[in-house]
Design brief:
With 90 residues, the protein is mainly alpha-helical. It has four helices and no strands. The chain has one domain. Helices cover 72% and strands 0% of the residues. Helix 1 runs antiparallel to helix 3, helix 2 runs antiparallel to helix 3 and helix 3 packs antiparallel against helix 4. The chain is globular.
């Protein structure tokens, strides 16, 4: 989950910074970058991509922090497919 999310998150962030190089420089906390990328996608009216990235982010967070949850092969494949889909859209 993490690799699927971070691969597409970093590609999306790089795509945004290519157009607006200083857009994320003023963030108060480093962790705010994840929501800032989603918000910038919404500003650009890429609502579908923003929603998909946010969904993948939640999947990653559940897999990484809720150790009592079981992530099966199908969920992992779904995360990878979602990341691939997002990548084609950015």
């Amino acid at each position: 989950m993490s690799r699927s999310y971070y691969a597409v998150f970093l590609a999306t962030r790089a795509r945004i910074e290519k157009t607006e190089p200083t857009v994320f420089k003023s963030l108060a906390r480093h962790g705010d970058i994840h929501q800032a990328v989603i918000d910038k996608l919404k500003d650009w009216r890429f609502f579908n991509v923003a929603d998909k990235l946010d969904g993948l982010r939640k999947m990653r967070r559940n897999a990484d922090y809720f150790l009592n949850m079981t992530i099966d092969k199908i969920e992992a494949q779904n995360a990878l497919a979602l990341a691939n889909n997002i990548y084609t859209l950015i």
